Amino acid sequence: MKVLIVVDMQNDFIDGALGTNEAVKIVPFVKEKIGLYRKNGDTVIFTRDTHEENYMDTVEGKNLPVPHCIRNTEGREISKELDTGDCKIIDKPTFGSTELAEYLKSLTDIEEIELIGLCTDICVISNTLLIKAAMPETKICVDSSCCAGVTPESHENALNAMKMCHIEIK
Prior knowledge:
Blueprint: E1 2-7, H1 11-14, H2 21-39, E2 43-49, H3 59-63, E3 88-92, H4 98-106, E4 112-118, H5 120-134, E5 139-148, H6 152-164, E6 168-169
Parallel strand pairs: 1-2, 1-4, 2-3, 4-5, 5-6
């Protein structure tokens, strides 16, 4: 079985509070990738960055003082262009999700895990490395055409860092 992890393809990261032109540009590629996995009968899992009203009082809020992905806001929602269908959605309060890694470990017969989404240099790299640490013998890859970073330079830096940790970059 192959698993696609769609990381934080939420309105605030695409064209909202923390959106970028690069994020907007990958939406069609992400949509196409999700369709391919579904067509092949593979598993698709979404992560959703989720903060509470007290976000600005958190460590993350003090380091990134831009309210985003606040529970019960439009910015927290996954883009309407992406069909979440019957996919599992894992809410995460910070960059990486140990819940995601534990869920993946509970699945059987995983041949490959592919990650795509936003932001390459924060949440994609965090989740990729958590999964790699939890499942070191599983093939893990990242499709760079379906990811965008905070900046193009930080996107490339994150891809290079993941490559050094034996993550296949497509």
